[in-house]
Amino acid sequence: MSTGDIVRISETVILSALRRGGCIRTFYRRSAVRKGGVYSVPDGFSLETPEESSDTPLSHTDFEVVRKYLVKVDVWEQTVGNTLFGGETWKMNGYL
Hints:
Elements: H1 11-19, E1 23-31, E2 44-48, E3 56-58, H2 60-66, E4 70-80, E5 83-92
Antiparallel strand pairs: 1-2, 1-5, 2-3, 4-5
């Protein structure tokens, strides 16, 4: 396995972390010169758990499996030179 590979995390583990107050953060980096582009898949996903000192990398598939239980709570973007950086924060919706 190369360092770029991400091991799948079970839905149960992700939902457990989210129920304890964790969140999933997405992030992306794009050309700021391009206008009107819609990017559906972020460059990365991480699971932040309050009691853990480090984040857990997630795959796009991991995120999609639990997305139906999430609500987007924050969006940010910042342009630095010709690069647009951005991301979103997702938390468990109140129905679980």
